[in-house]
Amino acid sequence: MKEKKEEKEKSHIEKIIEVSTPSQIFCLALTLILLGYTPKLIHSCYSYTRFRRLEKPEYTHESFEDFWIVIPCSIVLRLLKMFINTYTYEFFKRKLNHKYSGDELDRKIKKCTRGIFKVLYFSFTFYLGLFKVLKMTNFAPSVMFGNGELLYTVGDWPYTPMPSTLKFYYLLSFSYYVEDGIVHLFLPPNYDYWEMVLHHVITCMLIFSSYMSGFWCIGIFVLIQMDFEDIWIGLIRVIMDFSSVATLSLLYLLLMAGWGWFRFYTFSYCVFYSFAMGIRVAVDNYSHVVSVMAMLLATLLGLNIYWFALLLKMGITLIRGKPKDLQMVVTKKEMDEQN
């Protein structure tokens, strides 16, 4: 009882320090480096946007004013999360109270309600991005279920015609990562605390810089490829503690298949191949923006490889018939038992 009381009295900062393993500290260091470069990136995007407007005044697809919509969108997303939490909390409480109790039960329930939101949100954005944005272009390749040609990705760059729904899709995605990133900072920390901060910072920087520099034609691939796997990740987290091993195994296989196809094969093929063309096109025009975006994409690929290794570890727990959430904080007693 005394140990539980002491744990409950720990401040949020102390809890963050407790889960800051060497790998998480490395992620924190990378995050600080990227944040330090953010003002330079914003200035470069502003300069390049001004350059394009001077060269072609009638092309006004992207502007800093577009990002004002992020504030109301973020508020709406937060309210939707609160709504889902309110109306599903008791359901998950009945499902989980046999396995968890106290603060751990509350944390697990809220993680499930966030999972419900992710399933709904990413299902919507995946459909919107793939069928209402990418397929409206002439550069959706067959590996992304389109009839276009990847060579056209930067054919009209930096004045690429923008699909009508692109702006809404892109800024909605940006709003999601801004809102989710801010809220994440104040949630009870798990052992992936700083890597998720790093992921959100990378994603926000990529969305912003690709939008403002005209490379949304490449960023759209990244967003769609991430959205698909997040549907299955959210669903697995929702049902992990009260579903059969057979159901979890089926969802796990779908997740791994999607991860291999989208985050490895098409990510490497579409993003790096097309970005290589982008570097060729942009070599004389603010090439440092392109270089930073390439570095961010490489870091994102590194995170995908790391998470893939964690998913393989999760697969081992499924084979053993004891599925486990590898992100949840374990107690000192559990750690001693594992050691």
From TrEMBL:
GO molecular function terms listed in the Swiss-Prot or TrEMBL record: sphingosine N-acyltransferase activity
Keyword Transferase: no
Keywords: Membrane, Transmembrane, Transmembrane helix
Cell compartments where the protein resides: Membrane
Domain TLC: start-end pairs: 110-320
Biological process, per Gene Ontology: ceramide biosynthetic process
Cellular component per GO, a single term: membrane
Primary localisation category: membrane
PANTHER family linked to this entry: LD18904P, LONGEVITY ASSURANCE FACTOR 1 LAG1
Full protein name: TLC domain-containing protein
Species: Euplotes crassus
